[in-house]
Fold each of these.
Amino acid sequence: MAVSNITNIGTLPKLTPALDKLDTSNDNSVNFGDMLKDALNKVNDLQLQSQQSENDFAAGKTDNINQVMVATEKADLALQFTVAIRNKILDGYQEIMRMQI
């Protein structure tokens, strides 16, 4: 039984032109650690704003329950998203550690 070569299966898109367009010489680049710190600080700010709005509502300084609920939900969603990203990063790390070299 003879096995013939597989030909004309199509071409894959070339990724290098897209990568060549990336400008890595820009001095305004931000490293991953700074970006992560910034994102965590924003989540913390949302948590603090939520807590402040809840305290203001409990003290009678505001009577807008909608604003309190929106702030609470924003903080909750941001925290859930942060935990989900952390879990994905840990899963990736554990997968890399299981790889055999």
Amino acid sequence: MPGDRPSRPTLIYDGECGFCRAWVDRVRRWDREQRISVIPFQDEARVAAFGIPLPALAAAMHLVLPDGHVFAGADAAPEILRLLPGKRWLAGGFRLPGVRSVARRLYAWIARRRRCLVRGYAID
């Protein structure tokens, strides 16, 4: 990762997506110890330091760890859960056979429709 590495995990998300903002708000509520920094990808000055191409940031959330590891889309979910007090046990579900594959497909489906998601319902 170019430049200085963050001192804590950083979640980069779509700040213009209501669905995404709702989930980030949930992560913030669960993150009582403020272990995760959150940045909308539209904050180009801040996200430039991570060296992730803008099209990739627009396509999926990214979790960047202080050691430089990057997890995108559904692969970020269990890593986020591991960082949240009281939610680590949920990350274990991603180790079950087939769960990660289903999570990736579900994430891709939601990501393609997130502009249409209102109050949790797709309006296609």
Amino acid sequence: MYWTLELASYLSDAPWPAKKDELIDYAIRTGAPLEVVENLQDIEDDEENFDSILEIWPDYPSQEDYLWNEDEY
């Protein structure tokens, strides 16, 4: 299982919290690449609720990771 920013971004708008099966269904319905579905199928916890993409891929960048000062604009 491997994640990239591009692959994980397909799940950024998923209906959180969600179970593994719900995320797989969402990925298929939204036309995410096959790699996203395969990565989700490799997750071992079938019954666990995931609250965000960070629980699946902890390296997903948050808004704090960008050096953007909203007060300047």
